[in-house]
Amino acid sequence: MRRTATATVLLALAASAYCGLFAANSLIRVRTFTADSMNYVDVARRIAAGDGLVQSTGGFNQPFYLSGDLDLPSAFTAQPPGYPLAIAFVSRFGIAAPDAALVVSALSYAAVLFLVYLLGRRIGGSVAGAIAVGAALLFVPLTHLGRAALSECLAVAVVLMFFLLLDPYLKGTPDRGERAASRGLLTLLGLGLLAGAAFGVRYSLWPLPLIGVAALGLSGGGPQAGRSRQGKTRLALVFVVGAFLPIAWLLGRNLYVEGRLLPEAMPSVTTLPESLSHATTAVLGGWRSTALGNWPDAAVLAVVLGLLGASAIRTARGPGRSWHPAGSRLPLLICLWAVLYLAAVIWRSTQANFDPTGVRLALPATVPLIPVFAALVAAALPSVRRVAWLPAAILVACFGIAFVREATLWSRGPDARAMEFRSERQQWLRDHTGPGDLVIGGGTMDVPFLVPGSHAISYAGLPYTEVLTYADLERIADRHCPNFNRLHLVVRPTVQLGGGRSDEDPSIWLGPFIADARAGRYQSYALLQPLAALSEARIYEVTCP
User: Fold this and answer.
1) Residue 349 lies in a domain
2) Domain limits at 527?
3) HSE of 290 in the Cβ direction (CA atoms, 13 Å)?
4) Which of 361, 386, 411 is the last residue of a domain?
5) What is d(CA 40, CA 460) in angstroms, rounded to the nearest whole number?
6) Within this chain, do residues 437 and 355 fall inside the same structural domain, yes or no?
7) Domain-embedded: residue 57
8) What's the pTM?
9) Mind listing the pLDDT tens digit for each residue in 205-228?
C-alpha cells in the first residue's frame, strides 16, 4: 500500500512538472496566436475593462457588417463568450491578456490529460487509463491546440468532465431517502448546467445535452429514483432545465443585441461529399497532423481499429467473459456524441462558409474517443491486465517521451516573444497607430490586439465576407470620423484568406475598389491619401469629408 502511494505521488509530481514545462513552452517558445485568438484577447480586454461582450474589430466573423449599421465596438456574437470570459478571469491575477489566453489553454490541456486518464480507468480499468493518457500525450492535434490561444481545449475539457460526471447516472442503485434524492437532483441540475455551458464555449457543442437525455433514458433510473419510469422522467426534466438555462441566456442575448439567435454566415462553397471527406480524414487520419488529416493515415488507423475490435470481440466471447463490460454504456454514449457532433459540423459546413473540417474542428469528437480506444486495446489484450506494474510503466514511458519533447523545445527553441508580430506592416501599425485610431483593411483583427484601445474594420473578400466598396468607405468615414482621431486604410497586396487566389484578378473576390487600392491606383478616390507603400501592404489615410 505504501509503495503504491509513493508511486502515485511520484507520477503526480512528474505530471505536474510536465504540464508546467508545457505551459512555459506555450508562453515563451511557441506562442500560437491566430486571427480568432487575437479577437478573443480583444474581447477579454473589453470584458475586463467593463465594456461587456463587444469586439473592437467590426467585420471579423461578421460577413455582412459592411451593409449593416457599422457599430464600433460591435456586439460579440459570432463566437460564444466562454473562452474570452475565462481569459478575462485569469487576467484579473495580473497576467496580460495574451498570456492569459495561453494560460487558459495550457490549464485546459492539463485538465484534458487528467480527465482522459479518469475516463479510461472508469471504462476499462487501470491499464486502459494508462493507455488513454499515453495516447493523449502523443496525440499531435491535442498538443498543438493545447499551445494555441483557442477555445478547443477548454471545450474538450468541458465535454470530458460532462461524461465523467454522467457515468454514475448510468448505473441504477436503490433509493437512499429523500435527502439523498434532493442532493442527487441538485447534482443533476449542475450536470445540465455544464452541458448547457458547453454551448457557451463553442456553438458546435449543442448536441451535448441530447447525449444527457439519451443517457438518462438508458440508465437504470440513477442514484435517486431506482429503476422506475417516473424517476427517469424526473431526472430528465431536471437535467433539461439545467441545460436550458445557459443556452436560453446566450440565445436571448444574441437575439437582443443582434436580432438573431445565431450569427450570420456567407453561403457555403463546400459540398456534402467534400465535408464528409474532410471530417473522415480529420478523425481517422489527423492523429499526427496540425491541420487537415490524410487518407493514408486514416487507412492505417482504420486497420488498427479493425484488428483491435476483432480481437476484443473474440476475447469477450471466451468462456467466463461477459459481452458487455461494466462500463459499456459510457463508450456507447461517447461514440454517439462523436457521431452527433461530427454530423452537426458537417451539416453546418454545407450551409455556411467556414474553414474545412480539420483536426481543430474535430478535436471535441476525437479526444473523447481516446479512452474508448484505450479500453478497446485493453480488452483486446487481456493478458496485460495480469501485469501489475504495466500501467505505471506505460505512464512513465509516455510521460518520459513527452517530457523529452518539451525539454528539447525549451532548451533549443527561440524566444517567440522577441519575434512575434514583427512584420513590416505590423511594425508600421505599432509605430503610427494610437488608441484613438480606426484601421480599415484586409485581416485587420490584429490591430486592436497589437494596439489596445484602437479599433478596426476587417474584410476578407469573397466567399468569406462582403467586398469593401468605395461607397462603403464613404459611409464608414461619415459614421466614424467624429469618433476617431485618424482613419487608415491598409490594403495587402497578397491574399489574407483562402490561399491560392493571389494569381486571380483581385476584383473578382475583393471588388474593383480594393483591387485599385492594391495596385496604387488611388487618384480617382477622393478620400484616399497615400501614406506608405510597404512590401506587404499599401497604407492610405482616409480623409474625413
Assistant:
1) yes
2) 424-542
3) 7
4) 386
5) 18
6) no
7) no
8) 0.92
9) 999 999 999 988 766 544 444 446
